[in-house]
Amino acid sequence: RPVSTLKGALEIATIKEATEQETTSEMVAAIFHDFELLINDLTHLMDVAEDEGDEGTFDLVLGLKTQLEKNVWM
C-alpha cells in the first residue's frame, strides 16, 4: 500500500529535514550528502525499472541521476 501522508513519507525518507541550526559549511555538506543519497536511490530505481522492462522510467531516471552526478562532481 502506498504512503499517503506527509508523516508516512517523512518516516521512510532517506533525506532528513534540516534542524535550522546548521552553519553555512554544514548546509553545503548536507546538500552534497543529500545528492549522494538521491543518486543511490535513483540507482536502485533504475535497477527496478530494468528488471521490470520499463525503459521509459529507466531513461527518465538516468537523466536525473546523470545531472546529480554532474552537480556532485563540480
From TrEMBL:
Residues 8-74 form the Ferritin/DPS domain. GO terms for molecular function: ferric iron binding. InterPro entries: Ferritin-like, Ferritin-like_SF, Ferritin_DPS_dom. It holds the Pfam family Ferritin. This is DNA protection during starvation protein 2. It comes from human gut metagenome.
